[in-house]
Design brief:
This protein is mostly helical and 70 residues long. It is 64% helix and 0% strand. It contains four helices and no strands. Helix 3 packs across helix 4. The protein is globular and about 30 Å long. The mean pLDDT is 83.
């Protein structure tokens, strides 16, 4: 498995839907507006990985920031 896939799997395992209430309480809700076509692409990518839209966005943003974006 390529290193990027290992990173993705590790992140995804930490972002499961069954997270403890205390973990959920530590996260801040954020409202973001997406272009409908971009949102379709996000949903497709999340579905491909078998994760929620929120988990996919968090993973993707985390990866971009780790790679020096922003």
């Amino acid at each position: 498995m390529p290193p990027s896939e290992v990173q993705a799997e590790t992140f995804i395992l930490g972002a499961t839907k069954g997270e403890p209430a205390a973990e959920h309480a530590r996260k801040a809700p954020v409202m973001i507006r997406f272009d409908p076509e971009l949102l379709k692409r996000v949903d497709t990518a999340a579905k491909r990985r078998g994760i929620s839209r929120s988990a996919w966005v968090q993973f993707t943003l985390s990866r971009a920031l780790d790679q020096g974006e922003g």
